[in-house]
Design brief:
This protein has 204 residues and is α/β, with parallel strands linked by helices. It has 8 helices and 7 strands, in the order βαααββββαββαααα. The chain starts with 5 loop residues before the first strand and ends with a helix. Bound molecules: iron/sulfur cluster.
């Protein structure tokens, strides 16, 4: 295991696009579009809440986690703790609506892996709260989701250790990427300058 501590957000970035992850975490490039701005606004609201107890449940907000064995650090939006049983129930706040892919779940599963390492307990249920649709979805953490998350953690670690940035390749998801203008995936894809320069130096 290396000494690199991976932030939970890097896993989400990697799951979305490895190049985006490298641009943000290897090259320290960051750009804000309206999607990230809305997300930050939502998290400022969530983070500002103070701990409280209602009907036997303690609500802890903006909880910092660190799991040295996994090599992860980050912050959880909310943990609901059953005062009697000690059962923890992490809740992640999301700006949009439920997605087809697993990206949000991978981030939440990584949060659970951190909590399990820190608190030496097992957590089987988590929840997402979606701002746009204003509803909460509860999810059972399956072994396959845990395995997928561990694979993403390993791949992210390899990417960050390499210090490399993968090449751009335009896909539909690029249209929602906060780094679109900096990455310019369509231009990179069509960029034949390398071929042209190579041709200039070819003999006869
Ligand atoms: S624009 Fe596309 S290729 Fe570039 S970082 Fe974003 S998602 Fe990745």
């Amino acid at each position: 295991m290396s000494d690199i501590l991976i932030s939970l957000s890097a896993l989400q970035h990697y799951a979305f696009c490895p190049r985006q992850c490298a641009l943000i975490h290897n090259e320290q490039v960051w750009s804000e579009n309206w999607l990230t701005a809305q997300g930050q606004q939502l998290h400022q609201r969530v983070d500002s809440g103070v701990p409280e107890t209602r009907k036997g449940i303690r609500y802890e907000r903006a909880v910092r986690v660190s799991a040295p064995k996994l090599g992860l650090v980050g912050k959880l939006d909310l943990i609901e703790v059953d005062i009697k049983t000690g059962i923890c129930f992490p809740v992640e706040y999301k700006r949009g609506k439920p997605k087809q892919d697993h990206i949000d779940l991978i981030q939440l599963c990584a949060q659970v892996l951190c909590l399990e390492e820190m608190l030496k307990l097992s957590i089987n249920h988590v929840a997402m709260w979606y701002w746009q649709t204003k509803h909460r979805i509860e999810v059972v953490l399956t072994q396959s989701l845990r395995d997928e998350t561990l694979t993403i953690i390993e791949k992210t670690r390899m990417l960050l250790e390499s210090g490399m940035t993968p090449k751009a390749k335009y896909e539909k998801k690029c249209d929602a990427c906060s780094l679109y203008d900096l990455c310019n995936p369509k231009l990179m894809f069509k960029d034949k300058s390398k071929v042209y320069v190579n041709m200039l130096f070819q003999e006869g």
